Amino acid sequence: MKILTTLYDIKSMDELASLVDGFIIGNHDFGARLTHSFSIAEINKAIQKADQLNKDIFLQANQMLDDHLIESFDKFLDDINLDKLSGIVVADLGAVMLLKSKHLAHKAIYNPETLLTNTYDFNFLYKEHILGAYVAKEITLEDVKNIGNNKKIKLFMVGHGHLNMFYSKRQLVNNFMDFVEEDNIYHEKQNLKIIEEQRKDEPYPILEDKAGTHVFRSHVFSSLNHLSELETVVDYLIIDTIFKDDQYAKRILPMYQDRHGDQKLIDSLKRDYQESWDEAFFYKKTVYKTKES
Amino acid sequence: MVELLAPAGDLEKLKIALMYGADAVFIGGQNFSLRARASNFTIDDIKEACEFAHERGKKVYITTNIIPHNEDLEGVLEYLKQLEEAKVDAIISASPYIIDQALENTSLEVHLSTQQSAYNTHTVNYWYEKGVTRVVLARELDKYQIKDLTEKTKADIEVFIHGGMCMSFSGRCSLSDNMTERDANRGGCAHSCRWNYELVSDGQKVSESTFSMSSKDLEALEHIPFLMDAGVSSLKIEGRMKSLHYIATVVSTYRNLIDTYLKEKEIKDFKPHYDELMKAENRLTSFGYLEGLPGVEQQLFHQRSEKPSQLFIGLGVSYDEKEKIATIEQRNYFKIGSKIEIFNPSGKRFECVVEDLFDEDDQSIDVARHPKQLLKLHVPFEIEPYAMIRKII
User: Which of B194, B213, B8, B269 is nearest to A214 (CA)?
Assistant: First the structure.
């Protein structure tokens, strides 16, 4: 199992290199929910740097893409040093098909967030010769292991971070600021939360970026307690540092690298970043239907 | 010719939808379907639905649109075979497993559910090349994108024209899963996006106003001619849990609009169609993404649903032509002296005042206050079975 981290600053790559197997970067024209948006020049610089460090590097282009954006993405890719790029994470099936048409299927990683919840569906793009796919975040540890034991492509999963649970194309923060007749100073700012009136102790981070609006779980998901089980089924475990920076990555990654949680360090991280951790759906099966019958 | 596709939560609603002008209906079976709270159909119900529809030259599509977990896969093929035997016209699915099972092992026509968020030509063509004949597009496309995409594919294109709007890309939301443990992609959506929130920045309230992610419902009356000209194959009304009256009113309104446009090549005035629609529509509506990215005017902040201007008070059962006595089934309070509108499935409609009222035992009564009670009254025009009777306020 390789450990990847999203990146806030290219300058951190040297220091992080000893802690990870690779990096994930993106540009906000095509990526969503990025820790940081990098320009084409910066992306190419990061790819070169990763190559020098002998590390993997993946491009995150996980927006839903209409035909116009597909066309722009096609041109964008022409400016990227694809030879040295390990893979391209996309959320839209149309983007997979674009990569296939550019003979890049072998670098495609499909991450439709919620959709790959069973073994068959996880493998369904195997025939398109894609590199891998992300399992859905809403399934149990047993389901992850089951899918992993029957995978035909590389299995990616987010192993640590704020998992997103809502993606709208609408600019919902902007609409709200219009409603209250104030300027929207919150676009692409990572300091916003929404609090539901019945769940006051569960503030949900919300982010409005170019892709739209995203709402995240209130607790940070951590798989630290299950790394030995994940080791044999997961190919790439992602540490997503959205809402954080590389300092957070530097503190969390040694534990993932060692496959062992350090309670003192965990407590200090929770305290310093004012966050709580949980295991999301690993042991919490979602309810199939609600009708009593 | 463009298809008008309507929802049906049960057999009665299915018949109403088809009688009031839908070309096809989509319904959920008891397995593998979203909208768990709708009265989902048994296989026998589905057979009856297909017979009823096919006798009238119309179609029935079955939603098998859950995103299944491993444990849900058992029984899929057996269920699909039962649907095939029931002679359904298509299934609407999102899971590659269900789609492949249907395409490889049955003769069922497969439509791609909007839960897959088909949002570009590449995606639509991928599914078409797999054997999916129709694709329900993502709601996030504007009408020009819909037109452009329709021109670039051989797949039949289905577009939402009326009803509730997911705020998220369909199928990509797990608010409900996380906040209530109810799986949105397996029929349990709690509509958490419509709840009230407080927006805070660095712990401080951004505004005293309540933050909401709730959208007005979609209403595309004025866009129907454009979508028809664009070559869209099917115009879809959403709402399997809506009432009989809502289904009848919304379906017949769009039916009339489509027929008028086909006949006259233009719609001179949308207002009568809009006024008719509003007799049943009890939520605020707008045009969704059809004219581009929705702004503040498309969202619901604090607004309460509007009440319909006329109340649905009864359903036509039979009519004694000789005695001019109609039998109706009561659905809402009314009384002698109430002004009513009768709205027949054939399209004939008229207004009158309730002058007398009798119960099942032919006893004269002044007020109809018992739901589903059979009542008789003199009316000067025919009330057809399944006629909608509205109180005019």
Answer: B213
Task: Please give the structure tokens belonging to residue B143.
Answer: 């009408």
Does residue B184 share a domain with residue B327?
no
Q: Find out whether B113 and B139 touch, Cβ atoms under 8 Å.
A: no
Q: Please tell me the total count of domains within chain B.
A: 2
DSSP state of B185: G
Task: Provide, as residue numbers in chain B, all residues whose Cβ is less than 8 Å from the Cβ of A139.
Answer: 69
Amino acid letter, residue B315: L
Domain boundaries, chain A: 2-162+219-278, 164-216
Residue B281 and residue B355 in contact, taking contact as beta carbons nearer than 8 Å: no
Size of interface A-B (CB pairs under 8 A): 224
Instruction: Quick: pLDDT tens for B54-69.
Output: 999 999 999 999 999 9
Where residue B331 sits, what CATH number does that domain have?
2.40.30.10
Distance, in Å, from the CA atom of A97 to the CA atom of B171, rounded to the nearest integer, reads 20
Chain B positions touching A137 (Cβ under 8 A) are: 174
pLDDT at B310: 62
Model confidence over B118-138: pLDDT tens digits?
999 999 999 999 999 999 999
Query: B-chain residues within 8 Å CB-CB of A165?
Result: 173-175, 177-178
Does B318 lie in the same domain as B177?
A: no
Q: What is the pLDDT of residue B182?
A: 87
Domain with B93, as residue range(s), is 3-188+215-298
My answer on whether B388 and B279 are in the same domain is no
In a domain, B24, yes or no: yes
Is residue B206 in a domain?
no
Across the interface, do B188 and A286 touch by the CB < 8 Å criterion?
Answer: yes
Q: Which residues of B touch A66 (CB under 8 A)?
A: 119-120, 140-141, 145
Residue B64, min C-alpha distance to chain A (Å): 13
pTM of the model as a whole: 0.94
Q: How many CA atoms lie within 13 A of B32 on its CB side?
A: 27
- Output the CA angle B366-B367-B372, nearest 5 degrees: 135
C-beta atoms of A117 and B213 within 8 A: no
Of B95, B33, B29, nearest to B67 (Cα)?
B95
Note whether B41 and B147 are same-domain residues: yes
* Judgement on whether residues B80 and B176 belong to the same structural domain of the protein: yes
Taking residues B332-352, what's their average pLDDT? Answer: 94
Q: What is the mean pLDDT of chain B?
A: 93
DSSP SS3 for A58: strand
ipTM of the complex: 0.95
Boundary-marking domain end, from B298, B326, B341: B298
From the list B69, B168, B183, the residue facing A143 with the nearest CB is B69
Q: Is B167's CB within 8 Å of A287's CB?
A: no
Chain B residue closest in CA terms to A165: B174
Interface touch B183/A288, C-beta < 8 Å: yes
Superfamily holding A2-162+219-278: Aldolase class I (3.20.20.70)
Q: Are residues B178 and B327 in the same domain?
A: no
Give me the pLDDT at residue B393, please.
Answer: 81
User: Is B29 a member of any domain?
Assistant: yes
**Could you tell me what percent of chain B has a pLDDT over 90?**
83
Per the domain annotation, does B379 fall within a domain?
yes
Which tokens hold the place of A160?
């640590």
pLDDT at A291 over 50: no
Beta partners for A270? none
Q: Looking at the predicted structure, is the pLDDT value of residue B36 above 60?
A: no
**Given B149, B168, B197, which is nearest A167 (Cβ)?**
B168
B319 and B293, same domain (yes or no) = no
CA distance B87 to B176: 35
- Indicate whether B262 and B324 sit together in one domain: no
